[in-house]
Amino acid sequence: MQRIALVTGGTRGIGAAIARRLADSGYQVAAVYHGNEAAATAFQSETGIRIYRWDVADYEACAAGVAAVTRDLGGTVDILVNNAGITRDTMLHKMSPQQWNEVIASDLGSCFNMCRAVIGPMREKGFGRIVGISSVNGQRGQLGQTNYAAAKAGMLGFTKALALESAAKGITVNAVAPGYIATDMVAAVPDEVLKKIVAQIPVGRLGQPEEVARLVRFLVGDEAGYITGATFSANGGQYMA
Fold it and tell me: Coiled-coil ranges per the record (predicted)?
């Protein structure tokens, strides 16, 4: 039976590349989106991957969404990739409570919401793969991103703790911390700022979404069963922890 993979934020950017890679590797894939319906519909038409719409910051929506995926695909989720996230960048002395709370809920709270919905069946089955997509800025911090950096750093602690809880049940939990990847989010950065960013990357270029996707594909496979609680940096050498 095909294993079922669920990718949040799975219809654009890094998430879309991960969903494609897993589908090409023989997994049944469900891609979750929230905001851009046109992009999600185009993604589904192009790939044939099932799409689902819900807000990963909403606990009840996550539980209902996972139940729908389980019903539609005929089994429980074997692989979860927590990729969905947002930014609300501004310096802390200008940041509103809403800007803080929205990012924490979407980028970190979603990890609890989604993992809580899938972890029980994974434990019963004796198998599971969970990968969280963090960020280089969660490892090193970034100006104007106290909310985002805090959320992405929180994912790393979440990963280590859940890995310890889950190892005896055949479930691995790992994190990937990409650097600057050529996505719509990075494309929105002004050219002069982007040039300065690229100049600081030792390999001299932005990463490609597919490069992150290949790493995730390895981590969710049987060959990675002895790897858990780890964070993998994919940042072109920009930050070495």
Answer: none
Joined tokens for residue 60: 């009840």
pLDDT beneath 70, residues of the chain: 241
Question: Rounded to whole angstroms, what are the CA distances from 199 to 143, 180, 182, 196, 238?
Answer: 17, 12, 15, 5, 10
Count CA atoms within 13 Å of residue 208 on its CB side: 3
Active-site residue, selected from the candidate residues 52, 148, 180, 226: 148
Quote the distance between the C-alpha of residue 108 and its chain's center: 10
> What are the domain boundaries of the chain?
4-232
- 148 given a catalytic annotation: yes
In CATH, the architecture of 4-232 is 3-Layer(aba) Sandwich (3.40)
What are the pLDDT digits (tens) for 7-59? 999 999 999 999 999 999 999 999 999 999 999 999 999 999 999 999 999 99
Count Cβ atoms below 10 Å from residue 118 Cβ, excluding itself: 24
pTM of the model: 0.96
